[in-house]
Design a protein that fits this description.
alpha+beta, 8 strands, 2 helices, Immunoglobulin-like, 210 residues, five-stranded mixed beta sheet
Length: 210
């Protein structure tokens, strides 16, 4: 029991917290007005800097879309695209024409047939023979004639006398001596040049006189 004075067990309602704050008055603990002002100033500077950056970006975009003469590069790009499309259409038309020309059938070359035999010359040493008189007592051998010929494209030459069969076969270029009957008649000597194609013929006549 105490008599008078302060009771240490009673709440001390009049005690003021450190920092000068009291119940229902003053600023919250730990709040500095100068620090709050600094934060507000920095925030305003950041916002202003962002605004400047946005304005610069917009200006750069406008310059990028405008050419040196003040025209619009978007319209120029559209014109270039239209010109490219026209060129592509023209190229397609030319390609179609080339394809049509390439389908033309090629011309088939023709092969010439081989040339047939040709008699370039045919001669006799004589074409007229005088027979000896009938009253000559000595025996006289029959007269003769030399036949000569040249040919082209020929493999062999056949000789026929007075329309008969083949008398003998000779080379393409040759000569031969034949007997001529001295009977007062005319005798024929035909050669036939043979090879590829149609044969060629030529005749020489030799006349005899009694």
């Amino acid at each position: 029991m105490t008599t008078g004075g302060d009771d240490e067990t009673r709440p001390m309602d009049d005690v003021v917290p450190a920092g000068g704050g009291g119940v229902g008055g003053g600023e919250p603990p730990g709040t500095d007005p100068a620090e709050e002002a600094e934060r507000s100033r920095r925030f305003r500077m950041i916002v202003a800097g962002l605004a400047v950056v946005v304005v610069l970006l917009i200006g750069a975009l406008i310059l990028a879309l405008t050419d040196e003469d003040g025209g619009n590069k978007i319209n120029a790009a559209a014109t270039t695209l239209s010109s490219t499309s026209t060129t592509a259409a023209t190229t397609t038309t030319v390609h179609t024409a080339s394809t049509t020309a390439a389908t033309t059938a090629p011309t088939t070359p023709t092969t010439a047939a081989p040339a047939g035999p040709i008699i370039t010359s045919y001669t006799s040493s004589t074409t007229s023979i005088a027979c000896p008189a009938a009253d000559v007592s000595t025996t006289v051998p029959p007269p003769t004639a030399t036949l000569s010929w040249t040919t082209q494209n020929t493999t062999s030459v056949d000789l026929s006398i007075d329309g008969g069969g083949v008398y003998n076969t000779y080379p393409a270029n040759a000569n031969t001596q034949v007997n001529v009957p001295c009977d007062g008649n005319t005798h024929t000597y035909k050669i036939t040049a043979k090879g590829s194609g149609q044969p060629a013929t030529q005749t020489i006549s030799i006349q005899t006189h009694k």
